Amino acid sequence: MSYVSVVHSGMALYSVRLDEASEEALAAAARARKVSRAVILREAIAEYASVAGRASTPFARMSPLIGVIENGPGDLSEQTGKGFARLLAARREGGAARPARGSGKHLKRPSR
Asked: Cα-flanking dihedrals φ and ψ of residue 111, to 5°?
């Protein structure tokens, strides 16, 4: 474990405990960009803060996609209970609820 102290005029001072892998990653990133470790830490904190501030509910994450697809009939989710009841009734009566195997109505896999 090592300690990294970040000091910059007009900025707060923090001591951060880093495990060996984090220390090596921080040093490598700073060397690669030829900037100080403090710059890397500030940028990482700013990025984290921008992501952490976003809404994290499933609805918020999916909201940009809602209403994008305009394909197919709009009533697909209506009266699904009635369709399911018909399916169960057909099975109880011994009728084929779906095409039987080998009837030719299924997609066949291509032969290898």
From this structure: -75, 145
